[in-house]
Amino acid sequence: MQVYKTDAGNIFKNPLDINPYWGMDKAREAFSAVAGWDGADIILLLSTPEQTPFMPRDFEYKVTTKTLIEWAKLSTKPVVLAMNVNTMPGDDGMPEKSFIRLQDAGFAVFPSAERAATALTRVYRYYQWRQKKGL
Q: Which tens digit of pLDDT belongs to each residue from 77-108?
């Protein structure tokens, strides 16, 4: 087993909060640590690009979308993406465009962590049901 070293912080070992203000190298390192950990079966990435106060929203959405796609491709585990798509006047559809771009890249994308968690719970319950039925 490969051991990844990172100074990523976490509260209860789940979830891992990867702060973009660390810099992209450290954030990618933290993601790689989770992706390489045998204790994780699936990875849920939550992005809130509209919360970056000093960056233009259109630029932030473009960078966030590109980064999420790159990171998801680093993992051999399933990656589910949750991206808040709160729109504001002048967005020119950027939040929705980013959401669609993530879907077009082949990822399960949800507009909130709650909706992603609900979907994952339903998939897990369906898996359990199939096991009980011997399917």
A: 888 988 877 666 666 777 788 888 889 988 89
Residue 32's nearest CA partner among 8, 64, 65 is 8
Tokens of 71: 């990171």
Total number of domains constituting the chain: 1
d(CA 69, CA 62): 11
Among candidates 70, 88, 72, 80, which has minimal Cα distance to 110? 80
State which residues form the domain around 76.
41-133
Do residues 44 and 82 make contact, with C-beta atoms less than 8 angstroms apart?
Answer: yes
Cβ proximity of 57 and 50 under 8 Å:
yes
Place of tokens 């993992």: 75
CA–centroid distance for 125 within its chain: 22
